[in-house]
Design goal:
The protein is α/β, with parallel strands linked by helices and 220 residues long. The chain has a single domain, classed as Vaccinia Virus protein VP39 (Rossmann fold), CATH 3.40.50.150. The chain has an 8-stranded mixed sheet, sandwiched between helices. Helix 3 runs parallel beside helix 4. The chain binds S-adenosylmethionine. S-adenosylmethionine (SAM) binds next to strand 3 and helix 7.
């Protein structure tokens, strides 16, 4: 999605208590950044924050990190989190701008992340671009570097090819698929929150697919 440059985005983010401008400085220390031992989940490509704002307000006993590459997206996510939590200073969310293809620089095994959300990531249909998919095997290998054994992935997309390829990627990387829905309006997740892209795709009559998978660390 094209998004207009927002000159106010970076200054507004830098002034915010829950924006992290240099996420690599917290590598291996994210739990101490939150200052508690609550479960820690990460949303990859959080966009305008519809999902992270709702889930974090629904689960104050869980910590969330939202990552997107664009300041222009993260500043909107920041506002949504503040609006839904009714405070300027939410305690269970940290937002950051970072390229997820370099996620290993911001998390380490010590972070022991409990789960990932990937909602409507770019499908990158051309063969030479597939490596940029957030579910591509190269990415799954990076995630394996900081997930705890048994961590869960929750994934949603409107794209048929990305969905079936992702099932294959996960199986090949040793993940256990625990739930597949070819149509989330017929077979929904136990709990779910609509994202901005999901709303748009549903209005266009597209079928939304989803899966849950469990990360298994191989013992060699
Ligand atoms: C199609 S949008 C989906 C946004 C949101 N999850 C939703 O469902 O409405 C994909 C998002 O992923 C972000 N993104 C794509 N590649 C990324 C990367 N390598 N690192 C960080 N963010 C990325 C984009 O900036 C964009 O906000």
């Amino acid at each position: 999605m094209r998004i207009r440059k927002k000159p106010y985005a970076r200054p507004e983010l830098e002034a915010s208590s829950f924006f992290c401008p240099r996420p690599y400085e917290n590598r291996g220390k994210w739990r101490s950044v939150f200052g508690n031992e609550k479960p820690l989940f990460v949303e990859l490509g959080c966009g305008k924050g519809g999902f992270i704002s709702q889930i974090s307000a629904a689960h104050m006993d869980v910590n969330y990190i939202g990552i997107d590459i664009k300041d222009e997206m993260v500043v909107l996510a920041k506002r949504k989190v503040q609006a839904l939590q009714g405070t300027e200073d939410p305690k269970n969310v940290i937002l950051t701008c970072w390229n997820i293809e370099r996620i290993g620089e911001m998390f380490s095994p010590e972070d022991g992340i409990d789960g990932l959300y990937i909602n409507f990531c770019n499908p990158w249909p051309k063969k030479k671009h597939k490596k940029h998919r957030l579910t591509h095997p190269d990415q799954l290998k990076r995630y394996a570097g900081f997930l705890r054994d048994g961590a869960e992935l929750s994934f949603k997309t409107d794209d048929d090819e990305l969905f079936s390829d992702t099932i294959g990627y996960l199986e090949n990387e040793g993940w256990e698929i625990i739930m597949i829905s070819e149509d989330l309006s017929e077979k929904p997740f136990e709990e779910d929150f609509e994202t901005e892209h999901e709303k748009m795709f549903r209005e266009d009559g597209l079928r939304i697919k989803g899966l849950k998978a469990r990360f298994r660390r191989c013992s060699e």
